[in-house]
Design goal:
The complex is a heterodimer of chains A (116) and B (523).
Chain A (H helix, E strand, L loop, with lengths): L1 H19 L4 H21 L21 H32 L18
Helix pairs in contact in A: 1-2, 2-3
Chain B lengths: L6 H15 L5 H28 L3 E4 L10 E4 L1 H21 L10 H17 L3 H20 L4 H32 L4 H10 L5 H19 L7 H8 L2 H7 L2 H15 L13 H21 L3 H20 L4 H30 L17 H16 L5 H13 L5 H28 L25 H19 L1 H16 L2 H8 L1 H11 L3
Antiparallel strand pairs in B: 1-2
The chains are: A mainly alpha (116), B mainly alpha (523).
């Protein structure tokens, strides 16, 4: 399970990093989403990976699933979601105002994309 | 438990929430409420500052969940000073903003209050994940404020700012996750105790986690490899927002101080002195890059934005020696530079408004309407920023240079600080001479050609409009007049920062802190 989780975190972050280095806002937003997914799973795994364990310690139950990372991940998901939503709106606004979806706000090689 | 400690968070939160709900009410009401909130915040934080000077480190345990399990707010001298500075700068920025900036969009005042909430939260929290949450509140509000009013350059710069900070937030979570998985706590005071007991084989990961956090804080503070967002972002947003943002880079500086003295300080076991090889070079290169930016900028606002980078570089270069007396000097410099760069943004905006063709660009234009007033304001602020006597910049820089004398790398610090000050002086002098002396003849309205058209009327500023910039400037001589108490206060701040036993004792109680006493050899 460790290898599977580690590999998926790695793959998602790698794809995300590749995508945020693109010049268009849409792939960048997708890349940010992937990175935040990867980070969320990483954060989840900081409580160690267990299956079928309660989140409470009892005298007979010494192994338990750490509940704190789950709470952290929940917070991180909510915040990350809000941020992504904001960036989507910002990207749309930039496209409307600057008439390009280039992240620098300048159409490359002289072409204007979108409306005039 | 002193409930006043939570007030710097609750007050802007409640007022901001009310402002969101009451967004359709008359603007006069929103302004009055927002201003009253900022004034009250200034008074409250003033009281807190006084309490922190005279009293011990105060801990506010949210929901009475005793630390290290719950979230705590901690008010020590440094955080009290920072929240007071934020409130004061926020109040003056807001006084400036009610002259029209807030009309450009609907939710300016609500965003402004949430911005204050986020900044105050970042200063007061004693929990590293909570720090992340307050960072996000601060950033979300700052995206809104930065883009307030819209327009091409603002959106272009805002896009970079938002994307960079989103990546930064993800990296922050990675750093927090690494530290939590190894040390099993998020409370900063508890982290600093647990890191001593950490097993040897986790040392490398702990150090990696700490440096990941440093990368994020460096992004917030605008240190060298990650400062490129700042000139465009601060240079293109509206003036009062830029003035308030002058304190946002200091949030980065503050958390670097907090985390790397408290957790990764001298006593930090596996992570001891983590930042020692990194901070000074990064800060010096930042200083050089900022100075080059100051010289090459062609716009007064951009010059000021680059001066913010210079000030961050100066602060962290001096703090990079990690000695108590140099940090005390940096703490004297901190309010000075925050208020002066904030004031410069306002002065630059007033100047730009009175120049019909050039605006803030450094090309000759007709003289500004209120030559004497704006000229004096500009000169005063420039003198303070460049570090000439008799204003506070000179004394703060002199203190810093004197105190770094004996530490390693002092040659470099001297060279970089003196040259960057010199470059700042050249750039500001050049800007002033172009704006105020190298003027074009005044164009008079041509009665035949302009018949029927209204000539563009440039604003003439009344005393209330000028008040914020003037008040911020007045802080500079006050810092000089009260230099002795200020220096003593800075000494005690630095003492609390370098020897964090009092902080840890306040949060965790005597027993846990005793571990540190044993480590550091008592008080």
């Amino acid at each position: 399970m460790e290898i599977l989780v580690a590999a998926s975190v790695g793959a998602m972050v790698a794809c995300g990093v590749y995508l945020i280095l693109r010049a268009r806002t849409f792939p960048v937003v997708i890349g940010l989403t992937l990175i935040s997914f990867g980070v969320n799973i990483f954060l989840f795994a900081t409580g160690r990976l267990h299956t079928n364990l309660p989140a409470i310690i009892t005298p007979e139950q010494t192994l338990y699933a750490d509940p704190l990372p789950q709470a952290l991940v929940l917070t991180a998901i909510v915040i990350g979601f809000a941020m992504i939503a904001f960036v989507v709106v910002l990207a749309l606004r930039a496209n409307g105002d600057l008439h390009t979806d280039h992240v620098d706000g300048q159409p490359d090689d002289g072409r204007q994309k979108g409306g005039s | 438990m002193n409930h006043l400690v939570a007030a710097p968070l609750l007050l802007p939160l409640l007022i901001g929430a009310w402002l969101v709900l009451g967004v359709d009410r008359p603007m006069a009401q929103l302004r009055a409420l927002s201003l009253a909130g900022c004034l009250a915040l200034t008074l409250i934080t003033g009281v807190l500052l006084f309490q922190s000077i005279t009293g011990p480190v105060q801990v506010y345990v949210l929901g009475n969940w005793s630390p290290p399990f719950g979230i705590v707010l901690v008010l020590d001298r440094l955080s009290a000073m920072m929240v007071f500075m934020t409130a004061l700068l926020g109040f003056f920025s807001l006084v400036y903003a009610v002259h029209g900036t807030d009309l450009a969009g609907k939710n300016f005042h609500a965003l402004f209050q949430f911005q204050l909430l986020g900044i105050n939260g970042a200063f007061l929290t004693g929990d590293i994940f909570n720090l992340f949450v307050f960072f996000e509140i601060m950033l979300l509000a700052s995206y809104g404020l930065m883009l307030h009013g819209g327009g091409g350059p603002r959106i272009r710069a805002g896009m970079h700012y938002a994307l960079l900070n989103l990546v930064g937030s993800s990296i922050f979570l990675v750093g927090v996750g690494i530290l939590y998985s190894l040390l099993g706590t998020l409370n900063m005071a508890d982290l600093s105790v647990r890191i001593i007991q950490a097993p040897e084989d986790s040392a490398a990961l702990i150090r990696a986690g700490g440096l990941v956090l440093f990368a994020v804080f460096a992004l917030k503070a605008a240190l060298l490899p990650v400062y490129f967002w700042l000139p465009a972002a601060y240079g293109s947003t509206s003036a009062p927002v830029a003035a308030l943002f002058a304190v946002m880079t200091k949030v980065g500086v503050y958390v670097i101080f907090r985390v790397f003295f408290l957790i990764f300080g001298d006593h930090g076991g596996a992570g001891a002195n983590l930042l020692a090889p990194w901070l000074l070079p990064a800060a010096l290169f930042t200083l050089a890059a900022g100075a080059a930016g100051v010289l090459s900028a062609r716009d007064l606002r951009r010059i000021t934005a680059c001066l913010v980078i210079v000030s961050v570089g100066t602060l962290l270069a001096v703090a990079g020696t990690f000695e108590q007396d140099t940090i005390a000097a940096a703490i004297v410099y901190l309010p000075h530079t925050t208020f002066m760069t904030g004031g410069m943004f306002l002065v630059a905006d007033m100047i730009a408004q009175q120049r019909p063709d050039a605006g803030g660009k450094l090309v000759p234009d007709q003289p500004v309407q209120q030559q004497t007033l704006l000229g004096l304001l500009f000169m005063g602020t420039a003198v303070a920023i460049a570090g000439l006597p008799p204003l506070s910049g000179f004394f703060a820089k002199m203190m810093m240079l004197m105190h770094v004398q004996d530490s390693a790398g002092s040659v470099w610090i001297w060279t970089f600080i003196l040259f960057s000050g010199f470059f700042g002086l050249i750039a500001l002098g050049r800007a002033g001479s172009i704006i105020f002396w190298k003027t074009l003849p005044v164009k008079h309205a041509d009665p035949i050609k302009d018949a029927g058209t209204q000539p563009d009327r440039l604003p003439v500023f009344g005393p209330v409009y000028v008040l914020p910039a003037a008040a911020l400037l007045v802080i500079s001589p006050l810092l000089v007049i009260f230099g002795q108490p200020m220096a003593q206060f800075a000494d005690t701040v630095a003492a609390q920062l370098v020897e964090p036993v009092l902080y840890i004792e306040a949060v965790l109680g005597h027993e846990r802190a005793a571990l540190l006493f044993a480590q550091t050899g008592g008080l």
